[in-house]
Amino acid sequence: MTIAIIGGTGPQGQGLALRFAIAGVPVALGSRDGARAAEIAAELTARLPQGAAPITGHDNVAATAAAEEMVVLAVPFAAHDATLKALKPHLAGKILVDIVVPLSPDDPKKVAMPPEGSATEAAQALLGPEIPVVGALHNVSAKTLGTLEWRINCDILVCGNSLDARRKVMALVRKLGVEAYNAGDAQAARCIEAITPILIRINISKDVPFSHAGLRIWAPDH
């Protein structure tokens, strides 16, 4: 099943493309500049081990068309709404996986939530109920994703108004070798997206002896 990653030439998109390809999922990398996407796709392909699924580069519309069902949105929040408005006519019959976090432009250790409450909710309001939006993969370090010798050190919280779409996205995410949890409807994204700047703050703190930490759901010992 080919997936599209829109904004795939950025660090988060590139890291996800590598990880999904290694997991056997073909990736159509999307960018406003199709030639740039093709160039990045070739660079990523050179990093893949033998037997990985292909990564191809396209403009955003062509990448969306290449996706069988899942379209991952990985653009900066400043481009979030404009990108969705341009792609809306091409998203019919697909699930949008929104991984965007509305970080404050003045301080990435804070969020600047849109009026809808979260980027996930803003996407759903913009696309309408016919196109299910699922929020996921908000709290994964781009550095971790792109460093292939590192395991992905976090669990994934998945939210959205469609239970069926949530379950499909959880199944896709689990192909990366991580656990995915059903976090509820789209309003849960207000909490999930807000975790990212907290992780950023912790990871850059001089008082913490590590970086690129993620979120893990721990079961009780009893």
What would you say about this model in short?
36% of the residues lie in helices and 16% in strands.
How is the topology of this model organized?
Elements: E1 3-6, H1 11-22, E2 27-31, H2 34-45, E3 55-59, H3 60-66, E4 70-73, H4 80-87, E5 95-98, H5 119-127, E6 133-135, H6 142-146, E7 156-160, H7 163-174, E8 180-184, H8 189-204
Parallel strand pairs: 1-2, 1-4, 2-3, 4-5, 5-6, 7-8
Antiparallel strand pairs: 6-7
What do you see in this structure?
The protein is an alpha/beta fold. It has one domain (3-204): Rossmann fold (3-Layer(aba) Sandwich). The protein contains eight helices and eight strands, in the order E-H-E-H-E-H-E-H-E-H-E-H-E-H-E-H. It has an eight-stranded mixed sheet with strand order 3-2-1-4-5-6-7-8, with helices on both faces. Helix 1 links the parallel strand 1 and strand 2. Helix 4 (80-87) runs parallel beside helix 5. It is globular and about 45 Å long. The N and C termini lie far apart (39 Å).
Across the major sheet, the strand order is 3-2-1-4-5-6-7-8
Average pLDDT for all residues: 95
Helix content: 25-40%
* CATH level 3 topology: Rossmann fold
CATH class: Alpha Beta
Number of helices: 8
The CATH superfamily is: NAD(P)-binding Rossmann-like Domain
Any descriptors?
single chain; 222 residues; alpha/beta; Rossmann fold; 8 helices; 8 strands; globular; Reduced coenzyme F420:NADP oxidoreductase; NAD(P)-bd_dom_sf; EC 1.6.99.-; oxidoreductase
